[in-house]
Amino acid sequence: MPALAVAGASLLVGSIKLLVGRPRPESAQLAGVGGYSFPSGHTLHAVVLYFSTAIVLTVLGGDDRRAFALWAIIAGAIALAVGVSRVYLGAHFASDVLAAWFLGALWVYVFFASLRHHVSSER
Questions:
Q1: What is the pLDDT along the chain (123 residues), one digit of tens a residue?
Q2: What burial class does residue 22 get, using C-beta atoms within 10 Å of its C-beta: 0-12 exposed, 13-18 middle, 19+ buried?
C-alpha cells in the first residue's frame, strides 16, 4: 500500500509543479538544481511514505493506538527533518515545504479513507 500511495503522490507533485511553475530559490539555481520548486517533492514523498508505512504497520500489529502514536511520531520526525533540510540546503522556500507537509498529509488521509471505504463496501 505505501508504494501505491507514493506513486499517487508522485503524480500529484508532478502535476502541481507543472501548474504552478515556481522557480527554485536563487541559491538552488546557482548550485545547478533543476526543476520547479513548489511543492517540495522530497518532503511530500517523505510524509506519504512514512505515514503510509506507519498506518500499515499499525494495522498489521492489531490496530493498537499506542503503536500508531509511536509510528506516527517517528514518521513525523523524519518528514520534519526532510522538510527542514530542504530549506536549510536552499533547495526550497519555506512555503514549498509547508505546502508539501499539508498536501502529503491530505493525500495520505484521502488515499487510506478511500481504501477503507472500498474494502468495507466489498464486505
A1: 778 889 999 999 999 999 999 999 888 766 667 789 999 999 999 999 999 999 988 888 887 889 889 999 999 999 999 999 999 999 999 999 999 999 999 999 998 888 777 666 665
A2: middle
The residues spanned by each domain of the chain are 2-122
HSE-up of residue 29 (Cα within 13 Å, Cβ side): 8
Residue 51 to residue 2: CA distance in whole angstroms: 9
Instruction: Identify residue 1 by its one-letter amino acid code.
Output: M
Asked if 117 is an active-site residue, the reply is: no
**Helix and strand totals (H; E) in the chain:** 5, 0
**What is the distance between the alpha carbons of residues 26 and 74, in angstroms, rounded to a whole number?**
32
Q: Which three cell numbers stand for residue 30?
A: 546557482
* Contacts of 85 by beta carbon, 8 Å cutoff, 6+ apart: none
